[in-house]
TrEMBL record, chain A:
Listed name of the protein: STAS domain-containing protein
Organism the protein comes from: Planobispora longispora
STAS domain segment(s): 11-103
Transmembrane segments: none
One Pfam match: STAS
Superkingdom of origin organism: Bacteria
InterPro entries reported in the protein's UniProt record: STAS_dom, STAS_dom_sf
TrEMBL record, chain B:
Stretches assigned to the ANTAR domain: 17-70
Ranges of residues in domain PPM-type phosphatase: 415-631
PANTHER family, per database record: STAGE II SPORULATION PROTEIN E, STAGE II SPORULATION PROTEIN E-RELATED
SMART domains: ANTAR (SM01012), PP2C_SIG (SM00331)
UniProt cross-references to Gene3D superfamilies, sorted A to Z: PAS domain (3.30.450.20), PPM-type phosphatase domain (3.60.40.10), Winged helix-like DNA-binding domain superfamily/Winged helix DNA-binding domain (1.10.10.10)
Protein name stated in the entry: Uncharacterized protein
One Pfam entry name: SpoIIE
Coiled coil region boundaries: 367-394
UniProt keyword annotation of Hydrolase present: yes
GO molecular function: phosphatase activity; RNA binding
Length: 103, 643
């Protein structure tokens, strides 16, 4: 399974699924895949499914921030869904819960 | 005499080609280098370089210098044709007629010294036939009829056999000479071959029998073998040439398989008849329909790619010297370039003139292509490694310039501080962790650690930016931690460019220590809270709100306050210290807490040095930066030595 899959816009929402470890080795590529889709398809909402992400390093958090900003650029809502407890802790430490719709 | 004239004209063509190749400067140089190397015992490339140097010294053309050298070297050797002549003469002298293999004495099993009923003139004739069979290729057997008193043929004896004859039960031809056919191969008696022998003796004509199935009496013989026997009356006996069909098939099949497996082909050019023969494999290599026949040699020569024509020229020159040619060059077949290795040799007459030229051709394109690709990949790899190593060097240098790590604890107003940087084990992961510990303009002390997302040069550059900005701002503008983080966030957010490959975010914690009151005011941007250890108990300070740097255009950073007293240990760290992909953050933090608890609970004279020495990386993939401080007693007590 790829670390990222992007499902085409349905009902205006772009569904992104992340899996495994999103770290320094993959962040540039994952970011490009998602941001390109956001810019091309101009959805009204971007949802990032995180249930299968086991680990996120600082680059991985940076990827989520970049996707959030890309969504804002096209006036789309941004939502991170079902992070594991571990990832939820990381996002809380980073001060991103509110911006990611997790509060 | 038409064929002979054709042969001479083909020879003349070859000579002309060889002559043209011989004067080719590259070839001359190659020959001279080879000869020189042979005479002096040095390497050919050394000889080659020497000739080039020599030519340069003489201000001469390398080809001419080489020609001079060749002339000098070749003159002092005895004339080759003479030596060749005497050699061939010796080689062709008939061997002494003594000690024939067919002499009955060497076959104890064959009974009496001479087979009964065979006159001595016959054994003399058989000796001569045996000598002939010893010399000619192929597998032949000569039989002599054995007649009864009435002159009727009752049996045959083996009078001579080719040395290469091995019968189906493994007996060599020389072992059956002198024996009777009826004893050795009883199944042949009165069979079709037996009949043919009688008929040929009677009418003196050759005949062919077969293919006939052969049934051997021996257990070791293979089954299902068919034979064709060619019977020719010769002198007093019968010459039999045996062809085993299965073997012929097997041989042909084996050659075809070998050709296919090895991408091989062979060709023959008979200079006497002018006939060219190509094997199936050769047609495959030249992608030519066998129905069209072999390509004339001028046409196949013309397929050579222009850059490789000198190689062919050298090959022609070598051929002209009577040596076996082994040359690799490229040909264009259709729209593809093929790498061909060709081995060419000739059957020559006594004067050394070629009579038949034959060549084995191998298509080595796949090997060449993968060799070239491999070299390319290796080159890329080397370049990549070079650039990686260069980047790593640069990153480390940059870090040392921007972030010099003090080797020993150092004092600030009211505090003693110590820093440790744990670099990532993987070179490319060295990155963006930083610290700051310095007195501000207003008498307070500003303490900070930060972590730029990502690794490598870009992260190190951002780290430098943030650290210098913090140092400048804390002296010129403010020592308020929340205000400082607000500035850093603006800096990072505005400095971000779409061209950046990596996301640009960073985390940091900034604190201001007020020495007179012992108060620590701090703020954080997405960063783990500092740890305070007091009398064996470590607590994580309560975090005020604050998102990571570079994510949002405006962030509100809250501040929190805590007191620190002498004897406390305060630890600022980046997540490389505790973060590991296989452990929770709590699990990663646990060993740090244990160390802090222990050191703050005992009366240690050098708690900072001990602390930094004992902390270990949680994650070798990430770098980590640790800043540890302890308040110094205000009074005369100077504290420990480290301390």
């Amino acid at each position: 399974m790829d670390a990222v899959s992007v499902n085409p816009v349905s009902d205006g929402t772009l569904h992104v699924v992340l899996r495994g470890e999103i770290d320094f080795t993959k962040s540039a590529w994952v970011r490009k895949v998602i941001c390109d889709a956001v810019i091309e398809q101009r959805p009204s909402a971007v949802r990032v499914e995180m249930a299968e992400v086991a680990f996120l390093d600082s680059s991985g958090i940076g990827v989520l921030v970049e996707v959030m900003r890309a969504a804002w650029e096209v006036n789309a809502a941004f939502q991170v869904e079902r992070p594991t407890a571990r990832v939820y802790d990381q996002l809380r430490t980073a001060g991103l819960l509110a911006a990611f719709g997790l509060t | 005499m038409e064929p002979h004239r054709d042969y001479l004209s083909r020879l003349a063509d070859i000579d002309a080609k060889v002559e043209r190749a011989r004067v080719d400067p590259e070839v001359v140089l190659g020959r001279a280098a080879g000869l020189l190397a042979g005479r002096t015992g040095c390497r050919v490339d050394e000889a080659h370089a020497h000739l080039l140097r020599l030519a340069a010294e003489r201000g001469d053309d390398p080809g001419e210098t080489a020609a001079d050298v060749l002339e000098a070297l070749e003159d002092c050797t005895p004339q080759k044709p003479d030596r060749l002549g005497s050699l061939t003469e010796t080689a062709l002298r008939p061997p002494p007629p003594a000690g024939r293999r067919s002499s009955p004495g060497s076959f104890p099993s064959s009974g009496p010294a001479a087979p009964s009923g065979v006159p001595s003139v016959v054994s003399g004739w058989a000796d001569i036939v045996q000598q002939v069979l010893d010399a000619v290729p192929g597998r032949h057997i000569v039989l002599m009829p054995v007649r009864d008193r009435n002159g009727r043929i009752e049996d045959y004896t083996f009078a001579a056999a080719s040395p290469s004859v091995v019968d189906l039960s493994g007996r060599r031809g020389t072992q059956i000479v002198g024996r009777r056919v009826s004893e050795t191969y009883p199944t042949l008696v009165n069979g079709p071959i037996w009949e043919a022998w009688g008929e040929s003796i009677a009418d003196g004509l050759s005949r062919e029998v077969g293919p006939v199935p052969y049934a051997s009496p021996a257990e070791r013989a293979p089954v299902d073998v068919t034979l064709t026997v060619r019977v020719r009356p010769v002198g007093l006996g019968l010459l039999n040439s045996w062809v085993r069909h299965d073997e012929e098939d097997r041989l042909a099949e084996r050659i075809a398989q070998t050709e296919q497996l090895g991408n091989l082909g062979w060709g023959e050019w008979d200079l006497l008849t002018g006939k060219i023969v190509w094997s199936e494999g050769l047609y495959r290599i030249y992608e030519r329909d066998p129905a069209e026949g072999p390509l004339p040699s001028e046409e196949s020569d013309a397929l050579t790619v222009p850059e490789d024509i000198p190689l062919r020229q050298q090959a022609v020159e070598i051929f002209g010297r009577g040596e076996t040619v082994d040359v690799s060059y490229r040909i264009r077949v259709g729209d593809r370039i093929k790498h061909i290795r060709t081995i060419v040799d000739a059957v020559r007459d006594t004067d050394g003139r070629p009579v038949k030229v034959y060549g084995i051709v191998q298509d080595v394109t796949a090997r060449e292509t993968s060799r070239v690709r491999l070299a390319e990949v290796e080159q890329q790899l080397r370049e990549h490694q070079r650039s990686l190593a260069a980047e790593h060097r640069l990153t480390v240098q940059l870090q040392q310039i921007v972030l010099p790590i003090p080797a020993a604890p150092f004092d600030l107003p009211g505090l003693r501080a110590a820093v440790r940087y744990l670099p990532a084990e993987t070179a490319s992961r060295v990155g963006g962790d930083w610290y700051h510990a310095a007195a501000a303009d207003d008498g307070s002390v500003v303490l900070a650690v930060g972590d730029v997302a990502g690794h490598g040069l870009q992260a190190a550059a951002v780290m430098a930016q943030l650290r210098h900005a913090l140092a400048a701002l804390s002296v010129t503008t403010t020592s308020d931690p929340a205000a400082l983080l607000t500035h850093l966030n603006q800096l990072l957010y505005a400095g971000r460019s779409a061209a950046d490959l990596m996301p640009l975010t960073a985390t940091a914690v900034v604190a201001r220590y007020d020495p007179p009151t012992g108060t620590l005011v701090w703020a954080q941007a997405g960063h783990p809270a500092p740890l305070r250890a007091r009398a064996g108990v470590t607590t994580e300070l309560d975090r005020p709100e604050g998102a990571l740097l570079g994510a949002f255009p405006e962030v509100r950073y809250g501040t929190a306050a805590a007191t620190v007293v002498p004897g406390d240990l305060l630890l600022f760290y980046t997540d490389g210290l505790i973060e590991h992909r296989d452990r929770t953050l709590e699990e990663g933090l646990a060993p740090v807490l244990v160390t802090l608890n222990r050191l703050s609970g005992e009366r240690n004279q050098q708690p900072l040095a001990e602390l930094l020495a004992q902390l270990r990386h949680a994650n070798p993939d990430d770098d980590a930066c640790i800043l540890a401080v302890r308040p110094l007693p205000v009074a005369s007590d100077p504290g420990g030595d480290d301390g």
